[in-house]
């Protein structure tokens, strides 16, 4: 029958402090990214890049949105299965995914998307508190492009995102200047599981080129027919080729 009564002396009438800590000092004390550092990192970022965040923790979602929303167009999914479906439907430029999630975990997200022609080119960053060497190796083996351990700071996140998008731009340059007009006589066979990222995308583009070459004399063969042959919708095929080239 004991009753405890706690009284907290909360007031909204406190006088403002005479001395305040500057924003720069606060940033330095907390190890966060200074504005000048963030601006240097984000200079030259491709305007309008689309990022998909797959994360079930609302606090982490809010933090990621605060860090990335100033520089990218953001979309969200709140479990692994929804993230896979949204990634295939929208074909974002970069995916940031948690590892521990309902439905499908981050490892399954990476494995599914990296083995699907529609999404295999998309860079994926895994976020997790499980930062053991074994966990990192497991994620990288499934095809993750980067691995960030929680907690991370804004600067680290922006550096990783900008680096992966820069790698994608280099990939586009590679395909623009690689002389891919010399296609094989027949579509290349499916890439074995151990093929590298570039090999997987080479197989895809050579398949496209071979199909076009095989129908050069067919006036009725257009985008719709090519999409049906490659087993993708026209919009997904367009986004995939645009992302690669």
Number of strands: 5
The sequence of SSEs as H and E is HHEHEHEHEHEHHHH
Overall average pLDDT: 77
SSE-based structural type = alpha/beta
> How many strands, which pairing sense, and closed or not: the largest β-sheet?
5 strands, parallel
**What's the arrangement of strands in the largest beta sheet?**
2-1-3-4-5
Q: Approximately what portion of the residues adopt beta-strand conformation?
A: 5-15%
| Count of alpha and pi helical runs | 10
Helix content: 40-55%
Distance from first to last alpha carbon: 74 Å
Gyration radius, in Å: 23 Å
Low-confidence stretches: 20-34, 182-195
> Any idea what the shape is?
elongated
Please explain how this structure is put together.
- 47% of the residues lie in helices and 10% in strands.
- By secondary structure, it is α/β, with parallel strands linked by helices.
- The protein has a five-stranded parallel beta sheet, sandwiched between helices.
- It is elongated.
- The termini are far apart.
Tell me the layout of helices and strands.
Blueprint: H1 23-30, H2 35-42, E1 50-54, H3 58-68, E2 73-77, H4 80-90, E3 94-98, H5 106-114, E4 124-128, H6 133-141, E5 146-149, H7 154-176, H8 197-214, H9 223-230, H10 234-244
Parallel strand pairs: 1-2, 1-3, 3-4, 4-5
Key traits:
single chain; 245 residues; alpha/beta; 5-stranded parallel sheet; 10 helices; 5 strands; 10% strand
